[in-house]
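2024-03-11 09:14:02 DEBUG pipeline.ingest accepted 1 chain
2024-03-11 09:14:02 DEBUG pipeline.ingest length=458
2024-03-11 09:14:03 DEBUG pipeline.predict start
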Amino acid sequence: MIADGPDAPAPTLQPHVIVLFGATGDLAARKLLPGLLHLSQSGMLPEYRIIGTSTSELTDEEFRHVARHACDQFAMGKVSLLQWAGFEQKLSFVPLSAGPEGLRAAVSKAEADIGGDVRRLHYLSIPPSAARDVIQMLGEADLVERSRVIMEKPFGTDLASAKALNDTVHEIFTEEQVFRIDHFLGKEAAQNILAFRFANGLFEPIWNRDHIDHVQIDVPETLSVDDRVGFYEATGAFKDMVVTHLFQILAFMAMEPPTALEPGAISEEKNKVFRSLRPIDVTRVVRGQYAGYRDIPGVAPESDTETFVALRCEIDNWRWAGVPFFLRTGKELGGGERIISIAFREPPKSMFPAGSGVGTQGPDHLTFDLADSSKLSLSFYGLEAYERLIHDAMVGDHTLFNTAEGIERLWELSTPLLEGPRPVEIYEKGSWGPPTINELIAPRVWRLPFERRWRAAT
């Protein structure tokens, strides 16, 4: 379900062996290992073991050292020696070079250590190009039974590769076993969108084309791509962020009320939005690349990889016809405030005299902050934090995950841009992207950077 009441009992979880593919990568360090540590500390994990695996050749002790360094850097709060001692005992490592037999042996040992009926959770924190091999490896290792598999974004790199990957996945796993993740959607504010829309009756009557002028979804990043250049050169901002992140947020904002607040009903309403999305108009896309990107070791001198993308989307249905959705994301931008901004239509005539200052700042906006610390211009029901996604996969809740149909439809809509992208435009680090983004949104204006700050909590 979307949210549990304050007195709702926590789901009873069976013991789990968690196999973390890509365990020495950036995402594992920043999010997954600290997240698992936090789940363990908060008592939300059952009896468990974590098996890390990657192309690195590490011993168990070396992997524990890598994990401790990651948690010291990125975990919430200071990790005590006692807390770490309990967590590291659950960690082990098997290199991918050990093959299916080595992986199977490691999982069997972990299951024997736990004893009883043990479930398996395979987390694929790996590039799209490696996903098919890992899925097939899990089949060869006979690790499908009692398993669920979490697959990181992007899922494929175009329609053909997404279909091929889905075909491979479905040869080995059922759709119910698969969780196509977008780790941003685990964040508190993104889940709050659902509660805001469907647990509060104030805005639903005006949540349509008659009252909303446009919607902006903005996910800027101040980080460079230095530590992920190999991945980024093969992917770029659009594949990395838009298809499996910004489009997902768009769907939560635009979907019709589901028949129930449960995963199947929510996925169906999201897929209806994707079916109604018009194919991307390449003339309404701005691709940018920050100055100095081509000087990074590993980047081609003439690289056309975009580190920034802004685009206009349109939903061809009764609720949203004529309402543009503007999406923007990129690296090395002027700030990191991630927002959804809903601009309401202005009244046809103002009763206020010229010079009064009323109406001079453009349309009224309702703004969500998608940062970890959730903010909204008004106060509504709240939900839980990032680690919820891993927990949801363990209990089998598909609410915040994409479906095979949904991801293939999004790649289909993206085909015009992938086949005929406009050249990248250079933008300065610390800016908000190439100047042509203003032409994309005109006569409207971008909402970032904020002209006003959030009020301090009282």
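2024-03-11 09:14:41 DEBUG pipeline.report The mean pLDDT is 85.
2024-03-11 09:14:41 DEBUG pipeline.predict end
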